[in-house]
Amino acid sequence: MMREITVTQVERCNMVIFLLGSIGIGVLTRDVMAFFSFAVASAIVILNFRLLKRIIGRLILRQEIARKDLFLTLPAKFLLLLGILTVVVIYGNINPLYFLLGLSTVFISILVSQLLPVFSSSSQRRQDNGA
Description:
This protein is mainly alpha-helical. It has helices at residues 7-29, 32-61, 67-91, 96-103, 105-119, 122-129. The model has no long low-confidence stretch (mean pLDDT 84).
């Protein structure tokens, strides 16, 4: 059974993976381009996640969802992300493997956020669940 996670937990996990992943890749590979590729891709995805959180938060706070928001704001965010990725891939000297690994930061952080309780003690789980 999957537990409910909050966006804040995922964001916190994003930052931990971003920092540990960047430091780990930098130390293990000793390659500046591998470090740069992971860090840039991870930063792009984290910023995209935060922007999406802000857009959806604004839509939820308003009782009615305007068509402008659905047909203008979300596609504009998508095109902005696509443009940034295109510029980085075409003009940046990146390592594709580490760039793809950096792009998966949000996915990995969601998995970690879901699997973390499995590895925590049963007393901690009872305390968190109020049982």
